[in-house]
């Protein structure tokens, strides 16, 4: 049987398979340059495989192609569903559709008089001195104003004009729009009018109907409306992708990672839950593997080809209700992930006066210059010319036929040309490697600033944390990032290069329900909150009732609380004793903002119930030292690497050759089939019995 965990990223798709099929293992063992195979206890193996997310000349979908490659199946042969137990995956399909504005056509139905409410938004001025204000493009194409109204107490002021709604919706349907978002005033509490209009839309034939009281049952028309529009805009494209994958995997249990870090069955996967699907897998993988390694205070650092994601972990997953992604506002629980446009594919440019790294990315097609597709210089190219990446240790999957190694010659040529261009403009004569090091320094500073934003700026001392580093490009800059932040320890899991995919396999099934409260926090409110919690719990359990593997369940109850007259909520654990809740809130507020306001009363804005259903997760074997302690580890070769402003004779070690207790002093390079780890000067790398690599600063 096969268990498949996959992460379809912006540049690479990572696939991990856990299997007990010895015949497949023997076949793949003949292609060790493409597949990493790891032994597990009980006659099981882990197969690790990477391929480009987009390669239109060779395949339609990377995940399906990856499964075919592992099973050695031609494209015209169906995948044997009985061989596959489960497929758990994260996808960037919805994220890319939002970034590129390629979602479905949407009509917005909103209470009469509020036609432009979502366009006006909150009138934020992020660039306060900008003279020319550029409003974000709206995701909906048409607006229908519906004559209906409830007041804030639930009194019906204006009933729905059924005939008018039918006529307006039919007119829009005739233009080819099939997706609608229904957002009425006060419908988070009084949803009758939304339900009436949804029934009409269904009768007319709309295939996607997103209703605000179901999508985001919280007060605030604008954020509830934005979330509903996003759901209507993305769910159809997501549904088509899910159906496309499911059609290739008939009768296979297919699960997707949600933005809040939980898995859900494919048929329940919605647009609003999919924006951070891939990065969420990385956070779960980082947290679960770090806990197994004995680390509790973690900064996760995921550097991929297109972007870098960082997150903070101190005992529990951090989630936020309000977020803005790709210019679109949402109000659903998502993992608190700070994403910046700095990855291995971030394009390097000189604008005549300064170096710039990103935000544009070369992606996987054409990719960086070294990918042999005519791409521009990128961060990966800078690491090649610095000697931190060597083509012979990278999988040969480049060029139009996908079988060539990285191209170092074109990279050298382009950096020489760039250095000459910089010298002619600035009269500052630098070698190509000095230019490359300058670009890397800027990328490192950008990524370190992203970590400061989630740690130092929120009252956490980052020097007490371990940097859990992963992603295909993470190991190349881990020491530089830690040096910039004053961090002393870095954790690298053996699957660090594909940890987002591994995280899919470590995640549990999860269902969350949230509802608005907006009442003062006091002991008299507690019975009402308990009753609401029970209702939400029943709803969440109903969602989970379809699951075949009913594991152990854990229930987490949270209150989102704010000071009266303010708008910033903090999430605290629910307790029947109101004093415990108050203390938890004031402690968190003091830590986050540096002050408290005891004279103000507390307001419970909303509550949430999360049910986690435990799943079987892969075990990690202990490894035994077989080489005598006195026998020193031998490098594969000695290469030149430019770091700390000079060239170093740098030993290259294979991760597969390392044994528990081995200690490698920088400067050094450790190569794996799925990533490259650079041990900078003043750092050392130690392997433990769980095959975990821990980097520590020596001075």
Unreliable stretches: none
Q: In terms of structural class, how would the helical and strand content be classed? A: alpha+beta
The gross shape turns out to be: globular
Strand content: 25-35%
Count of β-strands? 33
Gap between N and C termini: 49 Å
What are the SSEs and their pairings?
Elements: E1 2-8, E2 12-19, H1 22-28, E3 36-40, E4 44-52, H2 62-71, E5 84-91, H3 93-100, E6 106-111, H4 117-120, E7 142-146, E8 149-150, E9 156-158, H5 162-173, E10 179-183, H6 192-204, E11 208-211, H7 212-215, H8 221-248, E12 253-257, E13 263-265, H9 277-292, E14 297-303, E15 308-314, E16 319-325, E17 328-335, E18 338-340, E19 346-350, E20 355-361, H10 379-385, H11 408-426, H12 432-454, E21 466-470, H13 474-485, E22 489-492, H14 499-506, E23 509-520, H15 526-544, E24 553-563, E25 570-573, H16 578-593, E26 602-613, E27 637-643, E28 646-654, E29 663-665, E30 668-671, E31 676-679, E32 683-687, E33 693-697
Helix pairs in contact: 3-8, 5-6, 9-14, 10-11, 10-12, 11-12, 12-13
Question: Would you mind describing this structure in some detail?
Answer:
It is a single chain. By secondary structure, the protein is an alpha+beta fold. It is 29% helix and 28% strand. It contains 16 helices and 33 strands. Strands 18-15-14-21-22-33-32-29 form an 8-stranded mixed sheet, sandwiched between helices. It has a 7-stranded mixed sheet with strand order 3-4-2-1-5-12-13, sandwiched between helices. A 4-stranded parallel sheet has the order 7-6-10-11, sandwiched between helices. A hairpin with a 4-residue loop joins strand 19 and strand 20. It is globular and about 80 Å long.
């Amino acid at each position: 049987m096969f268990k498949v965990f996959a992460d379809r990223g912006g540049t690479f798709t990572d696939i991990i398979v856990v299997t007990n099929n010895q015949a497949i293992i023997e076949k793949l063992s003949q292609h060790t340059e493409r597949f990493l195979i790891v032994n597990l206890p009980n006659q099981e193996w882990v197969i690790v495989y990477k391929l480009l997310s987009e390669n239109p000349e060779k395949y339609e979908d990377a995940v399906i192609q990856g499964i075919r490659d592992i099973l050695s199946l031609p494209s015209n042969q169906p995948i044997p569903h009985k061989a596959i137990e489960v497929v758990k995956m994260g996808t960037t399909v919805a994220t890319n559709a939002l970034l590129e504005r390629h979602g479905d056509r949407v009509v917005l139905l909103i209470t009469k008089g509020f036609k432009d409410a979502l366009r006006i938004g909150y009138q934020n001025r992020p660039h306060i001195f900008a003279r020319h204000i550029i409003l974000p493009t709206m995701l909906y194409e048409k607006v229908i104003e519906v004559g209906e109204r409830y007041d804030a107490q639930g009194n019906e002021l204006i009933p729905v004009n059924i005939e008018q709604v039918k006529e307006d919706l039919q007119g829009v349907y005739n233009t080819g729009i099939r997706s609608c978002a229904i957002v009425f005033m006060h419908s988070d509490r009084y949803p009758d009018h939304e339900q009436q209009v949804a029934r009409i839309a269904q009768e007319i034939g709309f295939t996607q109907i997103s209703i605000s009281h179901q999508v985001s049952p919280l007060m605030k028309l604008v954020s509830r409306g934005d979330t509903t529009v996003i759901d209507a805009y993305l769910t159809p494209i997501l549904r088509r992708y899910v159906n496309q994958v499911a059609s290739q995997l008939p009768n296979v249990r297919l699960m997707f990672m949600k933005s809040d870090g939980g898995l859900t069955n494919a048929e329940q996967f919605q647009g609003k839950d999919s924006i951070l699907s891939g990065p969420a897998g990385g956070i779960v993988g980082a947290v679960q593997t770090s806990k197994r390694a004995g680390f509790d205070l973690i900064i996760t650092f995921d550097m991929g080809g297109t972007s870098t994601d960082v997150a903070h972990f101190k005992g529990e997953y951090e989630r936020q209700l309000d977020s803005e992604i790709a210019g679109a506002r949402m109000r659903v629980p998502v993992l608190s992930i700070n994403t910046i446009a700095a990855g291995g594919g971030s394009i390097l440019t000189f604008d005549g006066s300064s170096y710039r790294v990103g935000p544009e990315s070369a992606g996987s097609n054409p990719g960086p210059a070294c990918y042999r597709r005519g791409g521009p210089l990128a961060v990966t190219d800078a690491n090649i010319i610095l000697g931190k990446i060597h083509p012979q240790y990278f999988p040969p999957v480049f060029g139009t036929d996908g079988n060539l190694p990285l191209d170092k010659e074109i990279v050298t040529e382009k950096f020489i040309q760039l250095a000459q261009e910089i010298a002619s403009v600035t009269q500052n004569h630098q070698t190509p490697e000095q230019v490359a090091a300058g670009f890397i320094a800027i990328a490192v500073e950008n990524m370190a600033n992203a970590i400061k934003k989630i740690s130092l700026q929120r009252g956490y001392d980052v020097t007490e944390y371990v940097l859990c580093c992963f992603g295909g490009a993470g190991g190349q800059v881990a020491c530089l990032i830690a040096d910039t932040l004053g961090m002393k320890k870095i954790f690298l899991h053996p699957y660090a290069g594909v940890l987002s995919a591994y995280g899919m396999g470590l995640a549990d099934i999860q269902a969350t329900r949230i509802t608005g409260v907006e009442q003062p926090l006091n002991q008299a409110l507690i019975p009402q909150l308990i009753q609401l919690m029970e209702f939400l719990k029943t709803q969440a359990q109903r969602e989970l009732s379809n699951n075949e593997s009913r594991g152990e369940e854990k229930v987490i109850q949270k209150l989102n609380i704010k000071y009266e007259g303010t708008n910033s909520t903090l999430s605290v654990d629910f307790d029947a004793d109101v004093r415990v809740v108050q203390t938890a809130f004031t402690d968190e507020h003091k830590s986050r903002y540096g002050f408290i306001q005891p004279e103000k009363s507390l307001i419970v804005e909303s509550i949430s119930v999360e049910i986690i259903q435990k799943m079987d997760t892969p075990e990690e074997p202990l490894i035994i030292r077989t080489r005598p302690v006195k026998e020193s580890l031998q490098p594969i070769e000695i290469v030149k690497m430019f770091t700390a402003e000079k060239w170093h004779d740098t030993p290259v070690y294979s991760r597969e050759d390392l044994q528990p207790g081995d200690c490698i002093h920088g400067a050094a390079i450790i190569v794996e089939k799925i990533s490259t780890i650079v041990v900078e000067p003043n750092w050392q790398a130690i392997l433990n019995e769980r095959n975990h690599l821990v980097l520590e600063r020596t001075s």
